[in-house]
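Could you show me just one protein sequence together with its fold in token form as a worked example?
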Amino acid sequence: MASPKISHLILNTANYEAMKQWYLDVFEAKIGVETSDHSACFLQTDESHHRIGMFNVAKTDESAAMTSPGARDTGALSRLNHFAFEYPTLADLFGAYRRLAGSSILPAVSLNHGPTMSIYYQDPDRNIIELFYDNQYTDEQIAEFYAGGDGYVLGASPFDPALLAEELDGGKTVAELTAWSPRAS
């Protein structure tokens, strides 16, 4: 099984505009996408759709998107939200899930974000680690996805990794398993 590579970090901040500008300046980044109310942004530093993201906790609406994935306490805190590791294939991601489950390490939550299939874990110090598979959207698909607005950017759908792993083993395609559509409002 392939080892994951570190992919991105997400920050919660009460100093959103200054933090955003600092990361734009330091990394010569550009904004890949930003919500209309400036509650979240995702910065590009290379070909990836995001390497650095941040949530504006001053605009928190107590939604799960503004806190760490799977958090019980949705309090707004300036802190590291999570850091992420990318697996090269969906099968590798599910292999990691099975290996960890075999050691009684279970995910806090598993979410299909559209561009990624993400399984979030909490370490013993309560740091959030995202293990994910990039759904291989083209630049055009990413632009179309994010043009869908805030509901797309923050509209992740939960999934059961054990069930999807079985379906992948049973012959369902990666495209079928990673399909995403916006939740009804």
Observations:
- The two ends are 39 Å apart (CA to CA).
- The chain has one domain: 5-177.
